[in-house]
């Protein structure tokens, strides 16, 4: 995986005062409601639940510096914060790309002034982590996200700069996550005491467990069942442990599954006083979100780039993005709005909140440099189409199955693969090893994507296999 070098540039390091009564988070570049700014200032005020907030910030920072698969020292990647005028959302991805953490500091835990809305990185350094770990008691904690430029000048005018390799899988993970999370439903809600008991009883292994709702708790199972939630690598939930004494409830989300399901992603929301911390786990410890392929359907849709440009212009860091309202304002049908959101997610411009079942607007301060470059399967599909190796059958193929209206053959150097398509050109399956192994759970293979592109109205005509 290619790694880009990203520079965090801060006017000064983030710091807490000696008494621990104030925390100043330095910001590094970002997009605001007023446009791009090098050091945006979003909020200054009081966190009314200081100890829980400090532990939540530490959890997000801990995920950013952790590899859960093949653990090793990882380059520090500073968390992202989004201010929407009502709340602060702190986000990070693990270094291995398989865990996403988000701390939402909600209106009830904030008391202060909002200066702007937008997204930026915040510096979380070792001295700041040590200071946050010392926060105790019920005294309010003053927090500033960004600072008045008059107060941050240094005697030598120095600018703090940190350069870290930023793997593309980190950016792709943000994109995949917002598509993967949309089908999630609430599967279980545990009261605080039961949540503590469950999390402390989980095994430390890295295998996949299936958690089945049972009254007010979850029981472990070796096999999936309707209503169950997959938990891959229970140790990835250990970051919640320091927050358990503040917990009010634990909610668990996942997609629909059956007795034949393969492992799937899951989300674990710890409700805190005035806050919530959500961990989303990939289907297996060895899998990062970047390879799940969930965004590929949106990226091959007709007119998706133009639609994304239009939809993106209508968003303004709202706490919740209403897809129906976007459809009304843009004049686009709802499926095209959702496809556009998938495209915007590829650049980190939207996220999905399972707790509120709604998208939210954010702008990651990185240049994603185009959806296609970040998705090699899509690049491969376009190459296959350009090479003229995709052949569409004009008549239904009885051997393809009752649900397939037509087939496509993709001639590869080693063998030809056959793709089953519906009448509207949606791929149902492929004979390649990728599809056989994952059964579509990690997105479509390049052969299926190429067949869909070939079946699109207006695609260059190619002769069928009987021509």
From TrEMBL:
<feature type="domain" description="SWIM-type">
    <location>
        <begin position="417"/>
        <end position="456"/>
    </location>
</feature>
<dbReference type="GO" id="GO:0008270">
    <property type="term" value="F:zinc ion binding"/>
</dbReference>
<dbReference type="Pfam" id="PF04434">
    <property type="entry name" value="SWIM"/>
</dbReference>
<dbReference type="InterPro" id="IPR007527">
    <property type="entry name" value="Znf_SWIM"/>
</dbReference>
<feature type="region of interest" description="Disordered">
    <location>
        <begin position="18"/>
        <end position="38"/>
    </location>
</feature>
<keyword id="KW-0863">Zinc-finger</keyword>
<keyword id="KW-0479">Metal-binding</keyword>
<keyword id="KW-0862">Zinc</keyword>
<protein>
    <submittedName>
        <fullName>SWIM zinc finger</fullName>
    </submittedName>
</protein>
